[in-house]
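*** Protein under study ***
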Amino acid sequence: MWKYFIRPLFFLFDPEIVHNFLIKWTKLLDGAGSPDMRFTSPLIEKKVFGINFPNPVGLAAGFDKNAEIVTSIRRLGGFGFTEIGTVTPKPQSGNPKKRIFRLTKDDALINRLGFNNDGVDAVVKRLKNKKFKYYNTSLPIGANIGKNKSTPNSKAHEDYLECFKKLRSYVDYFAVNVSSPNTPELRNLQSISFLKKILKTLITENKTGDRKPILVKVSPDLSNSQLADIVSLLMELNIDGIICSNTTVARVNLKSDNLKNESGGLSGKPLSKRSTEMVKLIKNQAGDKLPIIAVGGIMTPDDVIEKINAGASLVQIYTGWIYYGPTLVYDINKKLFKEYLNN
């Protein structure tokens, strides 16, 4: 039904308009009367960086930027966790519209949103009013945090610290986003000097109260040697995990000729190979010392099996959910259940 009726209908409209509609629709269905898309079993539960996940499939950052649907996404989507954001200290509108493009021939999206969000204070206020448990099933919430566009990189650590301090009482882990291609100069924060300063600032703050796991989200456009340097730093600092990967600025072998030159980050199926390659590289270097959340190009249950076999502890999806519909997470977890039964 999704592929042949609902998706073609949605795809008649601008992607951002559809996204905003889906957020509103999900909020309206928040409650016991909403459809239940959960597949539950102790066999698919995971414990990673000290957090219990009801299943290993999360909603990637970018969908619920402002923490509007954290109480409903577990039941309606079947997800095992969700990541809000990217959240910045001050609200910002992001880049000019139109800024999301569907590459339907490639099962991909290009976005150049630019960290559009309501700002950390508005997000905190919203989270204070949310219930974090649904039918006795906890839904871990991560906060993807970034810097404002107007903040120079020399002061970026202050923006990350502000978001961390204000959100720490309301989320279960943090994802440090230094890899979006849609904020000028942001990816330069992946350099060892900048990244070390940001992480040491957060580590110091993390010692002052309720400790939260800290993860770093990296770019697929890093060279393998750059990735290795970052992994070494994360291990040196005892960072809790890594998320790979963000969207890519590469445009390799795309079929959607009319859109492939749009600026922004590409997500979806074309990213799958590089994302898996990065998971393998990190696993070979760090072993079990750096848990990996794999994101990028996950469109089918078999894609998840591939990421886990490569070394991922958890996965996240976004574009795949758009293309393959609301039953995708259920189908993934059912496939994982069968895999665990057979092993």
